[in-house]
Amino acid sequence: MAEALYSVEQVAELLGLHVRTVRNYVRDGRLKAVRIGKQYRISRANLEELTGSGVGATVRESTRRVRAVEVSTVVQIDAIGRADADRLSILLTSASMSRDPDGPNLRLQTIYDEERASMKIVIFGGTADTAELLRLVDVLTEDES
User: Fold this and answer.
1) CB 108 within 8 A of CB 96
2) H or E segment at 72?
3) pLDDT band at 64 (very low <50, low <70, confident <90, very high)
4) What are the φ/ψ torsions at residue 34 (nearest 5 degrees)?
5) Under 8 Å between Cβ of 140 and 93
6) For the segment 95-104, what is each residue's pLDDT rounded down to a tens digit?
7) Helix %, strand %, coil % of the chain (to 5)
8) Quick one: which of 78, 123, 138, 145 has the most CB atoms within 10 Å?
């Protein structure tokens, strides 16, 4: 006999959670699910793995919250040429990739506007990693007057 599969809505009701919370658990990999068509299906075994016991365990019993702090930063640099912007982008990307892979997520994006000769740097990550990248931006863009 096939194992019972639950929809995201059913899991949310069983655990007393919001549907979006369950979807986030699936997307974050905290709850294993199979995608069938446009919907996720969760097996009883995967649900019990999340809760640490039988279905219907309360969220307090099944999940331990870990405090996470994430910073989102946008840096704009005006009067910067394409070559300097490319160099800065490569250096920041390299620095972001050389950090501890087990540390908090770090996302970096750089955008250069040729017409305005301006660059935007968008950083999402932990406070220490973001501060380190901002320090690099500061050092690499210091005015040499």
Assistant:
1) yes
2) strand 71-77
3) low
4) -115, 135
5) no
6) 888 877 777 7
7) 40, 25, 35
8) 123
**What type of residue sits at position 78?**
D
Average pLDDT, the chain: 85
Are 24 and 85 within one domain? no
Exposure of 139 by Cβ count < 10 A (0-12 exposed, 13-18 middle, 19+ buried)?
A: exposed
Look up the pTM and report it.
0.54
CA distance 138 to 118: 16
CB 76 within 8 A of CB 118: yes
Q: Could you give phi then psi for residue 58, rounded to 5 degrees?
A: -75, 160
Position 63: which residue type? T
Is there a domain that residue 110 lies in?
yes
Q: Which tokens go with 24?
A: 């986030």
